[in-house]
Design goal:
Helix 3 (about 140-155) crosses helix 4. It contains six helices and 18 strands. Strands 2, 3, 5, 6, 7, 8, 11, 12, 13, 16, 17 and 18 form a twelve-stranded mixed β-sheet that branches. The protein is of the alpha/beta class. Helices cover about 20% and strands about 25% of the residues.
Length: about 325
């Protein structure tokens, strides 16, 4: 049995929508994008408070920034948990929703379904982690959450981001492969993707960041397989594939260093950034030397993760 860690977000009340004719409207408010409505245009507005939850089959608590309003659009960050963990636990570990006011975004942290051993998982690739072959369609579920958030929470469809750890990293990659038109960028922590390169054919460029520890013995930095199952590619191979998909032309990446893991002394992280890419969708590898599968992330990492991710437009 593989165990990836676990920790433990909240909600409000559903309102009903009504359609009204508007006068000319051009309101700028901090924290989101200005929303412009022409005179006489019909604008759907919610007569009550924003929904507390999204999703019909698996309800997800909605975490809104305090400044949220319906006069502007907002970025959306979705956190995808690791195998056996939960949305709430992963969100607490990564400190995402607790930073929604600082960075001005809406946060969702959904749960995967449970296998016969009551462990939560995402059906991402043959390697991870639908080990009981349930065939659950998690792509449609996550795309449905994105569409509902755009419709009901004024999410900017050009600013949708995924953060996934381990099995959640595999799932983030799956969404980038199969629903590239729904996501702006993903941040993959200690996860991988399809071993078969031809299985990932994104319809457009997706910003890509991979953070991976070289001492990870669960999802190994050089690639491998879980308990002798289907194989997954190395972190380096994944980066090469996304550089090619995004048309990155840089021969030499920009390099930055950082101290992001409290369990490893000094600046264990080297950030390599290939930025001369199509549609400004850079590709980044955050190689964490000496770091394990569940790093002791500090607040410096949590802030840098969101800053890097939300920089994609």
């Amino acid at each position: 049995m593989i165990r990836f860690g676990g920790w433990f977000v909240f909600g409000c009340v559903m309102g009903c929508a009504q359609t009204v004719a508007t006068p000319a409207l051009n309101t700028a408010v901090d924290g989101g994008q200005e929303l412009t409505v022409d005179a006489g245009q019909e604008l759907a507005v919610d007569a009550g408070p924003p929904p507390a939850f999204l999703g019909s089959e698996r309800l997800v608590p909605v975490s809104l920034p305090d400044a949220w309003n319906r006069n502007q659009t907002w970025p959306l960050v979705i956190v995808l948990h690791g195998y056996t963990s939960s949305g709430r636990g992963q969100d607490t570990y990564l400190g995402v929703s607790s930073r929604r006011n600082d960075f001005g975004f809406i946060a969702l942290a959904p749960d995967g379904t449970r296998n016969p051993q009551r462990q939560r998982f995402w059906n991402a690739t043959p390697a991870c982690c639908d080990f009981w072959n349930s065939g659950i369609d998690d792509v449609s579920y996550i795309v449905g959450l994105i569409d509902e958030a755009v419709e009901r929470l004024n999410v900017d469809p050009s600013r949708v981001y995924l953060i996934g750890h381990s099995n959640g990293g595999f799932m983030s990659n799956r969404i980038a492969c199969d629903a590239a038109d729904k996501v702006t960028a993903i941040f993959n922590i200690a996860g991988s993707s399809f071993n078969d390169e031809t299985r990932c054919q994104p319809s457009e460029s997706v910003g890509y960041i991979q953070a991976h520890g070289t001492n990870d013995t669960v999802i190994k930095y050089p690639g491998g397989a879980i308990n002798g199952g289907a194989r997954y590619p190395s972190a380096g191979v994944l980066i090469d594939r996304w550089r090619e998909r995004n048309g990155c032309q840089d021969a030499n990446p920009q390099t930055l260093s950082g101290d992001f893991d409290n369990a490893v002394p000094g600046d264990e992280t080297t950030r390599q950034i290939w930025s001369t890419c199509s549609s400004d969708r850079s590709v980044q590898l955050w190689e964490m030397v000496g770091t394990a599968h569940v790093p002791s992330f500090n607040d410096g990492f949590r802030d840098a993760m969101l800053e890097a991710l939300l920089a994609y437009r």
